[in-house]
Each structure stands twice: as structure tokens, then as C-alpha cells.
User: Fold this.
Amino acid sequence: MCGISGFINLDGTPAKAPVIRRMMSIQNHRGPDDQGVCLFSLAKGSAIELTPEDNSAHPEMSGALGFNRLSILDLSSHGHQPMFNADKSVMLAFNGEIYNARQFTSELQAAGYSFRSHTDTEVILYLYEHYGLEGMLARLNGMFAIVIVDLRKQEILIARDPLGIKPFYWTQTGSTLLFASEAKAFLAHPHFTPEIDQTHLSEFLAFRYVAGEDFLLKGVRQLRPGTILRITRDGPRIQPYWSIPDVIQKR
Assistant:
């Protein structure tokens, strides 16, 4: 279990480091072993990783991505997230486990990728670089919530595993789009005002859950299983990538 937090100001307003740190603090129980914070700009195609003490203003950066890490496969600092590719044009935050990750390492090494860690996170990163988003997702066997900031294509790609084992939430308030592993992380953002969605109150009290993509709080959406959330400077777009077949072929 790890925690992902992030937001982007689509109008270009600077992203403030203290805000993403407060969002991460709410999710600290998901990953107390390590923290990473990056600010980025889709428009400029650039990103910077902040030190733990850095809360200074970076007016050119309109997005923020934070990660709370629970170390499992690689306990060393090489598994630090958000994780960058070699030229720092792509960064990735990943919560979950990929069961077949090891089967791709030799193939990726033969293609020229050098591994710094023993994490499945790095395998995902290179699969994305080598095969693209759809090719990467088609090869993954596991449970996951993945956030990819592709500075080359100027977009954020968020994907949830086909069965929705790992949670993920997002919302848009004005020109700010927020996303996180737990919706309560949004409470730390000054642009988010929590309000109960009365239409789902009885459902939540009965089942302790709201089905589909809705949530107990107004405007908050659950990213549905087997779905991609694609964010550009023009806004968000939902794209399913997996579904249960309608027909069972008989032998």
C-alpha cells in the first residue's frame, strides 16, 4: 500500500509545495517509509524534484505530484518515487504490485534500458517508454493505480487495474484538477470545498460504499476499474481500456 497525491492548475497558476505536502500528510499511513515531491509544467515540458525542506515558490510549475512509499520489493533508495526515466521526460508514481514484472527485465535490457532498482515500478516505467500506454497496460498482470506525467506529450495519464483493487479518486474544482489514492487528501487543498452528495447518502449508510464512479462527496469521482484518465491542458478525458467480454466462446 502506497499513497499518490497530485493536482494541476489548468490555468497555469503556480502549484504550491506546501499544498501537496499537506495532501501527502493526510495519506502518510499509506506509506511511511519514504516521500517524494515533484513539481512540473506540461506547458514547458519540465519538472523538478523537491528536497524535504524545499517549500519555495516555483512560479513556472503548475502541477504537483507527491508519493508516500511503503517499501516492499526494493527497500533501498533506488525505489524512490516519483520515478523518472533516464532523460527526465517521464515520471511515474505507482501503487500496487505487478506479478509478472520480472519476465520483462531481460527483454527491456536487450532493448537498451538499464535498471537501477529491483522494483516493479521501474519495469512499468520502461514498458511505457518502449510500448506506449496501451502496450504497457496490455502486458501488466497485477493490481495497480499508476500516474504517468509525460512531459514530451504534455499530458498526465492515470490508469487503474482492471478489477479496481487499488483505489483512485479525482475531482475538478474550477481550473484545478486533483487526484489521489484517498479522497480525503482533497481536504488539504484550499480550492476544494467538501459537500455531501445527498443522493448517495442512503446508499453509503447501507453499504459503506458508493457504486460506480460517483462518491459521497459532490464532484468527487472514483476512477473506474480498467479505465484511463487522460489530462491535458484542455482538461480531463475518460477512456476505458478493459472490459469483461460479452460472449463466452464454447469449445
